[in-house]
Design brief:
The protein is of the alpha/beta class.
Length: about 180
């Protein structure tokens, strides 16, 4: 039985190196009969978390804010796997992805925790000019542990300055294989 996979793509470039990893991952996952839904966050209107603790997880829109997160919440609520995809910005996830991840907190508030556990799994796809992934991996490992998600692994593609630099590199194959390996 195929898994329901949600990809939160925090790249600002649809044709950038992170998006190339997302495409390869998606090809592999769909080849393995999984359903993949990608959210290209840079094209969405998503505001930062206000820290108000006013969310209620069981509502259709669990957050008090009404923006494009209303499209993401039901997809995340119903998914088996969440893939975080981002370029490396200042040794961390992009602001687009961090904002969306912060806003997912509303699924943990109020009437029941609809984000933590539930047999979910996660993977991380990242591209960067350099290779300094240590700090972001520490954050990702802590996030996955807190949310009680199974860590399916990551593909970290350093040495990619310009859009398209990643083409033909081993990380494209690794992303495809990661998507195909999900069971």
């Amino acid at each position: 039985m195929g898994k329901n996979i949600v990809i939160l793509n925090g790249s600002p470039r649809r044709n950038g190196n992170t998006s190339a990893l997302v495409r390869a991952f998606t090809e592999g996952a769909e080849q393995a009969s999984h359903t993949v839904r990608e959210f290209f966050l840079d094209a969405m209107d998503i505001h930062g978390c206000k820290g108000c603790f006013g969310g209620h997880s069981s509502r259709d829109c669990p957050c008090v804010q009404r923006d494009d997160m209303v499209r993401i919440y039901p997809a995340v609520r119903d998914c088996d796997v969440i893939v975080l995809a981002s370029p490396l910005y200042y040794w961390n996830l992009s602001g687009q992805l961090r904002t969306a991840v912060d806003r997912l907190f509303a699924l943990e508030e109020g009437d029941g925790n609809l984000l933590r556990g539930r047999g979910r799994a996660s993977a991380l796809l990242m591209a960067a000019e350099g290779n300094g992934f240590e700090d972001v991996l520490t954050y990702y490992d802590h996030l996955v542990k807190h949310l009680q998600w199974k860590n399916l692994g990551h593909v970290l593609a350093g040495g990619n300055m310009d859009a398209g630099d990643i083409q033909g590199k081993a990380e494209i194959r690794q992303a495809r294989e990661l998507g195909n390996s999900i069971r």
